[in-house]
Design a protein that fits this description.
alpha/beta, 2 domains, 7-stranded parallel sheet, 15% strand, globular
Length: 423
């Protein structure tokens, strides 16, 4: 019965996104990216391909988790060919030119025939599935062919369908994995409640490895330097409207001198125009890029709006205090580890409980949660005036990240001990 509902979900999802593509740019890319997808795949793959490693990531965030493992595999064996797939345009469109993988594709929509056709085309010897997103027909076909499949940085919660009365097909998906590398003990214990306990390892989260690698390469940008000029500013990353309202109230009404670098989560024109209106003394990064003379007057602004992608993870090093957006949305905060690795105190919104790293960082006083502008001001005042508290919080943040490194090495060890690379 659950498989019938799963097939209905696939049908409705595919139909819905094709309708949405008539007006939604992201949905349009999803549809266009899969047009003639098998012809595209077959034209790019060699006729007689050697055994490939296939890594699947739902989107960009999952790719950043899988990236340390992918690059470790490539460094260990440069001749190893790697196929990287994405389900979402927000992953594929950003990483389609990534040099660390040999072939990068959209994953065709899950169904019995597409799974067979895709796996025939790439002929993988090992499959790495990163954190989220489970597709029944792909996983079933891989199991049928005895192709090893590893889950990387998995995390499980009681609210997920695996642990519900109707979750039969979801449990079958998990049974198709040869080994599950999970982030924490809670995930392992949840899997035990549905009879999965023989092939589970607590490896930690490969995101820790990724952010440590990022922190080795600082951002050297003349516009950012000219704006900062060694002042104690806030870097606010992946912000949504509720975050921006609070930050604007703090910067424009509470503390006129406070400098802020803000990186909105949505970079469409309508949202950027709204942010410009909120932050009255603001300038956009690309405006300065396109008109270099503005760099001489950039100190007349107290807010720099970053309206281009790819800078955020290294921008946090410029913050005296860093703010992570998303804490007032239903999904919760964005990647807090990208900020923590730089050893600076962190501020987040209220909705963070499902992110264990955020809970841990609050518990060790490296981060603070706020609900309004008054609480933001209170936290800021404390860290701006109490140097001892500021240094302790920053130190705790950095130590937390570095203490949890090594998840990618654990997966690599398993791959080589079990001789899963058969080229």
């Amino acid at each position: 019965m659950s498989q019938i509902f799963y097939n209905l979900f696939l049908f409705l999802y595919s139909a819905g996104i094709r309708i949405a593509a008539l007006w939604n740019p992201k949905a349009k890319k999803w549809v266009e990216g899969r047009r003639n997808i098998f012809a595209t795949i077959n034209s790019k793959l060699p006729t007689q391909n050697s055994k490939l490693v296939w890594m699947h990531c739902a989107s960009l965030g999952e790719f950043e988790q899988g990236r340390p493992l992918l690059e470790a595999l490539k460094n260990k064996n440069p001749a190893q060919k790697i196929v990287l797939t994405f389900f979402s345009p927000s992953g594929y469109e950003v990483m389609k030119d990534y040099k660390g993988a040999d072939y990068i594709f959209y994953l065709p929509m899950d169904n019995f025939f597409s799974a067979k056709k895709f796996i025939n085309a790439i002929n993988p010897s090992l499959v790495l599935w990163v954190k989220y997103e489970y597709w029944f027909y792909y996983l079933q076909e891989l199991k049928r062919r005895n192709i090893p499949v590893l889950l990387v940085s998995g995390v499980f919660r009681k609210s997920q369908p695996f642990f519900k009365w109707y979750g039969g097909i979801w449990k079958k998906m998990l049974q198709n994995f040869d080994h599950l590398f999970v982030q924490n003990e809670a995930s392992k214990q949840l899997l035990q409640t549905i009879g999965i306990n023989q092939n589970v390892t607590i490896s930690g989260d490969t995101r820790f490895d990724r952010v440590i690698e990022i922190a080795k390469h600082q951002l050297d940008d003349n516009i950012i330097k000219a704006f900062c000029q060694n002042q104690k500013l806030i870097v606010a990353g992946s912000t949504w409207e509720d975050d921006e309202i609070i930050l604007a109230a703090y910067g424009d009404e509470t503390n006129h001198e406070q400098k802020i670098i803000i990186v909105p989560h949505e970079l469409d024109k309508a949202h950027l125009d709204m942010v410009k209106k909120m932050f009255k003394k603001s300038v956009c990064y690309t405006d300065v890029q396109n008109n270099p003379s503005l760099i001489n007057s950039i100190n007349n602004y107290n807010t720099l709006i970053i309206d281009s992608v790819g800078m955020l993870s290294r921008l946090y090093n410029y913050g005296h205090i860093n703010y992570i957006g998303g804490g007032f949305t239903n999904d919760g905060i964005h990647n807090i580890l990208e900020a923590a690795v730089w050893g600076k105190p962190i501020i987040i919104g209220e909705n963070y409980e499902k992110y264990f790293e955020a809970v841990d960082l609050i518990d060790c006083a490296a981060a603070e949660s706020i609900s309004d502008v008054n609480e933001l001001k209170e936290v800021m005042d404390n860290w701006l005036t109490d140097e001892i508290a500021y240094n302790q919080s920053g130190k705790a943040a950095k130590e937390y990240v570095y203490a949890k490194a090594g998840a990618a090495n654990k997966v690599m060890g398993y791959i080589y001990v079990n001789r899963l690379l058969t080229n």
